[in-house]
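User: Modeling request: complex.
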Amino acid sequence: MTVRLPLAPARALELSIDGRTVSVPEGASLLDACRQLGIDVPTLCHAPNLTPVNVCRVCVVEVEGARTLVPSCSRRAEAGMVVKTDSERVRLARRLVMELLASSVDLSTAPEASSFVERFGARPDRFGPPAPAAERGERERRQPGHHAAPRPGAAETVAQPVKLDNPLFVRDLGKCMLCYKCVEACGADAQNTFAIAVAGRGFDARISTELDVPLPDSACVFCGNCIGVCPTGALMFQSEHQLRAAGQWDEAQQSQTDTVCSYCGVGCVITLHAQGGRIVKATSPHDSEVTGGHLCIKGRFGWGFVRSRD
Amino acid sequence: MDLRALESLPSDVERVAIDAVLGPEPAVPSASWSSAQGRRHLLLPALHAAQARVGFVSPGALGYICQRLEVAPAEGFGVASFYALFALGVRPPVALHVCDDIACKAAGVDHLIDGLTREVSASAEHAWHRSPCLGLCEQAPAALYTRAGDPPVERGLGRLTLERAIAALRTGPIAVEPAPALPQRGESGLRLLVRVGHVDPSSLDDYRAHGGYRALRRALEIGPAGVLRELADSGLLGRGGALFPTGRKWEAVARATTRPRYVVCNADESEPGTFKDRVLMEQDPYALVEAMTIAGVTVGAERGFIYLRAEYPLAAERLTHAVAQARLRGLLGDDVLGRGARFEIEIRRGAGAYVCGEETALLASIEGHRGEPRSKPPFPVEVGLFGKPTVINNVETLCNVPFIVEHGASAYRSVGTAGSPGTRLFCVSGRVEQPGVYELAMGVTLGELIARAGGVIGGGAPAAVLLGGAAGSFVGKASLDLRLSFEDTKRQGVTLGSGVVLVLDDSVPLEPILARIAAFFRDESCGQCVPCRVGTVRQEELITRLAKRQPAGSLAGELGLLRELGQVMRDASICGLGQTASSAIESAVERLGAFREGEP
Ligand SMILES: Cc1cc2nc3c(=O)[nH]c(=O)nc-3n(C[C@H](O)[C@H](O)[C@H](O)COP(=O)(O)O)c2cc1C
Ligand code: SF4
Ligand code: SF4
Ligand code: SF4
Ligand code: FES
Ligand code: FES
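Assistant: Request completed. Predicted assembly structure:
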């Protein structure tokens, strides 16, 4: 885990956003500056507890003098910058980014992304009806750089069968928007296990273990931190996956209880989500001092035993 | 920590080949795994060794390499599966990569490919694949032949015919080298090509006899400040495409407060239609070695890397030889020219990824990561190779430096235009009588350049010219008066890019060329950012619909969607690949009326 040292007081700098002047500490991102003004900038791949990868591009803003739009999540604020967060260019980019995502990825369990589709008036069907899903193993077999000709009249998607290779969680990569969060959480940002990485290239890029081996054959220690950060439901607890498959998942009926994990002495905060008297998943608040949102296999999945002990 | 490696083991021959790169296995293996290990930069060289030995990277070889380099297997797989030339499943030892890219298409390669499809069936001995541009466009149609083994064989094949392709697959390529097209040999006034075709590329003595290493001597005499002054005054602009003033780049690194610093030569040359750097490296390799040494002693770097695209085996061989000779003769090493400066050059080979020509992707690739570009700032002059200040320049850019240092900035500026001093290498290919690399003063008109290349085959007129490669733009015959300088092209909204001038006439249908360009960007996108990863797919789908005259809805609606896609890829993509992925296509729609034929 990274140790957070108290920061030396940073110098302040001033910039203009949507015609308003704002003062932020040196090192702040444009996103920080926008939020300070209460401007709601959409983000998908950004998370406060992970290193910015700036890949989704939904957070782009216009900076005067810059040739292209810039990602607000990772671009540092500079003194004198003149920023627009709601220009024609920005609106077009956000709408189209959501159209591209929604036309290629199943966002049905991604509430935030789905809300952006609505909010920006994105029409993913402009690209045509979705092409048939890939067969099991098909996407994994594609060789980078070797061309797969487009299927006539259809929009290619990442739809593919769900990977069910372990009792604890499923990988439904047809829902994966490739935000890299799980890779970061499994790697240097939290877990230091490096069980998963991005493999392949371009549209065939995907989250994968080495040679696509099943998770139990990989280095995975089933901490579930990747599930904790996944914004799309591509990585999902078996319990949730099964309830959803049975049409019984109902967040309105769920209660959340914060507790401190009792397995060891670290004192991780765990939020237990229960539905109908059954615990259905466990998370940890990402602003928790102790966990930063990350847990281990016991905290994440150990509640399975709570029920069996009852 | 409970970690597993891949269970299979490498074969003995794989192990020997990998150990030849990584050194013998230490007696006490280290137990720590992390992504930030010191030897990770050897990942690509080790993967190349395994692939060159048996024709593919087996699970055992991958596992062994990851274990030796202390790279997590998932990450090692992520890297290996990024590159087109690494095969992670069993492949036959012999492979023929047949270019079906733009210049080869203009030369009719599609017929050849139809023939291969018909006559060559899959076998355990050999396989053929389609390939993007191989940088042999003046010899189109072209292919790259590889045979795994000890030693492996790799060779570029030019002017390919179906018979020769089949013969190469079955019995190996014929022994002759592809004849270099050196149309300007013997001309006066050449700077970059002055020795090309005259000098023996394997002989350091011959290089010196032709004036080589005078510039390095002069650089040591006038010192870093003197070199930086000449370079700034020369107005040299980068030839890799971005047109950044080279002097400013070197100055920033020379002034950096941290060490070590690095010099990196971008020899990835993968822009479709580009082959100038190949000609320089194959024909005059010592010039690049000397230029990099000048860069090293000027900016205070002790190590330089040449990142060479894997498809250039002859350049690799000649550069490797040149570096070794220079080291042997004290022109590289701990005491360059006996003047106390230290400089070493290492050659690193790409593995089939256009995006690795983007400078931050290139640096990531050398470091053993996936070739994914990152946002700038920070620029490589501040945060470059291994996080250190780095000068990264194109081959042609660097090869301009010895002339500037030896003859001075004002001599350099005596040709060219005010805004674009000096000469430029143009890669002329397609339907011209004498395709090849032409060195001409900046400001020459497009029509003059085409005339220099013998004009259009059969004396016809050009129907379309692609300037700057797949990332560039098309112009029509109305632009033959266009002066090829940075300022004139910029005014016209086009780019010289990497110097590509691909000439098409009426015998080459334009739309399949546009479809190939759309496919190229789709195949070469690294996949990181949404606008490019999905946008290039949608663009290709759209182009396919338009080419088939099956628009979804109205043609105007489809062209509007194409424009929106283009604008968002340009505006919101991380790197130049996505930012230029629609450029050539949009220019063909706007200037040449592509996809409108047959419409009212
Ligand atoms: C997708 C992409 C591919 C590129 N490929 C090359 C290349 O093959 N060779 C090259 O010199 N520059 C290439 N560049 C440009 C480099 O990023 C960089 O600008 C150049 O190496 C700087 O050198 P220069 O200043 O000498 O031109 C490429 C850029 C992009 C965006
Ligand atoms: S469960 Fe933990 S170890 Fe396994 S892939 Fe997810 S983050 Fe990595
Ligand atoms: S699986 Fe989830 S966290 Fe991982 S890249 Fe995909 S969407 Fe992001
Ligand atoms: S623009 Fe394309 S190639 Fe560049 S980073 Fe984005 S996905 Fe990768
Ligand atoms: S949130 Fe900024 S690029 Fe994804
Ligand atoms: S070698 Fe075929 S297009 Fe360049």
